Amino acid sequence: MRALTYHGKHDVRVDTVPDPEIVNPRDAIIEVTSTAICGSDLHLYDGVIPAVQKGDILGHEFMGRVVETGSGSTLKKGQRVVVPFTISCGQCFHCKLQQFSACDNSNPVDKQDLTEPLFGHAVSGLFGYSHLTGGYPGGQAEYVRVPFSNVGPIVIPEGMEDDEVLFLSDILPTGWMAAENAEITQGDTVAVWGCGPVGLFAIQSAKVMGAHKVIAIDHYPNRLDLARKMGAEVIDYTQTHVLEALMEMTGGIGPDAVIDAVGMESHGFAPDNVFDTIKQKVGFGADAPHALRMAIMACRKGGRISMPGVYGGFADKFPLGALMEKGLQLRTGQTHVQRYTKDLLRRIQEGELDTTFMISHRLPLEDAPRGYDNFANNQNDWTKVVLKPGSAMS
Amino acid sequence: MTYRTFEDDHRRRQPRRAGPPGGAGLAIGLGLVLLGGLAAQQYATRQQDRRPADSAPGRTARQNRFGGYAVTGRSVTIDRPRQEIYEFWREFRNLAHFMENVESVHAADDISIWTISAPLGYAVEVKTRIVSDRPGEEIAWRSTDDSQIDTEGKVMFRDAPGGRGTVVEAVVAYRPPMGELGRIAAKLFQTEPAIQARRDLKRLKMLLETGEIATNANRNDA
Q: Which of A18, A321, A379, B197 has the fewest C-beta atoms lying within 10 Å of its C-beta?
């Protein structure tokens, strides 16, 4: 089959690799019909996530048709399914608590040896990501082996388009969980850093959850525009003092909740960020949490911080004093996708959530490297890239 | 024919003494640092001796040797009933399903012969005798005198708090073949018992909770 593989920093290629097979009883094989490039794929592309190996198949947002099932799978050949990016067994302590991304049983034990020294515990397996999370072959491919297929995949009714439901695999539940972690109540003002796909879904979710006002912060005019369409007020940090503006836009209180939908590769020409970025480039200290620092400073006393943005290592110059003295709560985590898919599918069907507005480009799988390049370097116009395996090169 | 005289020796040594202290100085310095480190360690050990014992299992102590034995162990919580896990384990043939380096276990009467793969493609045979067998609670074994490795161990099963299933705790003591060198060599080849205990118990958990052992392999021949 054809698949997008990692060859090194800023070097991904579509290669021919062996087709997957059923290996474990609960596996299914999916023929991919749509697969997206995620913002967190860019962390891999930029080489800032550890334990990514040459030849790894990337991609963790995908859907398709079931073409083969193991003896323990509950799926049927021909069904259309969206596959969560988190691989979860459904039977361990954490899965029973619906903490699916903390699954004990989906990350192979030799890979857990890599994660434990870094994080203290191993987390669940993820598709197409670092070997810290299992090194599972990903979804930017023609076929994918899906372990625990009786737990993760959600069957999609006929009549719904791929593009409407594809993001149930990651960014929609991730944006939704980000808003949920912000514990929004009526009348709240929520500030969201980053108007990429997750930030945009967090804005939309916060509105659905009853936020009075959502303020979105970015510097790409097109992305700020999309945020505005979702009902947010916007701040362009290249022309406005963000902290001052947030105080003035909230009657001197500060946002009740703040959401960092940026993660480990913050943009912005601030002294702390320049220093972080230099450290990142020389491979010393993985995280550049400029947006998170600012979010903590902006948050009102006793407020909530939600952190869907991806981090992989250590941060310094972290405003721990502000966090403690202001009595803030911090909630974060890889998304527990399976917890949300059913409810969110219903909300899409009922027209409560718009899931296609951010898609800027649809490309054949063969064009994936061009997709990565532009999604990374032309962020204003390339807001979300969906790849279609099987379609011809443009 | 030349004779070596005391004067010759003296002359030969002279330039060395007069030369820059470079290597020798460095060696002495390094020696002092090492001595200092050793002294500090001795002091710390003595300090520890004066403290009352804490609640942690002995194998988590900073000291990792007890007599000539290395002691290793690991706990895992498995969401299955105690008796079921005990019975699975007691059928020793099952152990090869989840223990990576155990190639086979043959049991005859109360003696079991374990074939264990070792670094560089070698295999060792360990012969053990069951010394304690309490259904649902504990199985303990000790190697026989003709075993290739001197080892003893036990696995204990107890109810986990909060209805989380069973805590399985395995402890193994062994005299490393070739001593410390053997232990380091084994660690380099990933077969050290501490690493194996960690991995094997997690695989047991996967197998008993989900019926399969997680792998990222995309094909059966991979």
A: A321
